[in-house]
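Weekly sync, protein design subgroup
Attendees: M.S., D.O., the rotation student, P.L. (late)

Item 1: inverse folding check
M.S. brought a backbone from last month's batch and wanted to see whether the design step gives back something sensible before we order anything. D.O. pointed out we never logged the input encoding, so this time it goes straight into the notes. Structure tokens as presented (107 positions):
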């Protein structure tokens, strides 16, 4: 399953990478690499997919790109051996769209 999200962030861009990192780390994602405007997160592995029923616990790779005030999110989720239902897709849609809420909320 693949997911993409693009939004304009009318927020203070100072420390934006740290806020993005905090959001994903709050869900136990690991920051694998960071290079300027790109952050690469991973979660789980394909073996763990056999027992993970929560779609957010599936093996996944997420790239977040920050270009000026635009945020691009690309997610590749390994769903095997699970059947992807609309509800499971909605979990990921909400998770990624909540990033926008997290970035725009006042500290």
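Designed sequence read out in the meeting:
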């Amino acid at each position: 399953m693949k997911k993409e999200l693009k939004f304009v962030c009318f927020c203070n861009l100072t420390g934006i990478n740290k806020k993005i990192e905090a959001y994903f780390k709050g869900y136990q994602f690991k920051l694998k690499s960071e290079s300027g405007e790109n952050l690469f997160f991973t979660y789980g592995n394909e073996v763990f997919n056999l027992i993970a029923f929560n779609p957010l616990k599936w093996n996944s790779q997420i790239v977040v790109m920050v270009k000026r005030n635009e945020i691009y999110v690309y997610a590749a989720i390994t769903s095997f051996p699970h059947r992807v239902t609309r509800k499971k897709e909605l979990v990921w849609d909400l998770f990624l769209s909540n990033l926008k809420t997290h970035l725009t909320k006042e500290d």
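Discussion: Helices lie at 16-25, 86-104. The two ends are 33 Å apart (CA to CA).
Action: P.L. to compare against the previous round before Friday.
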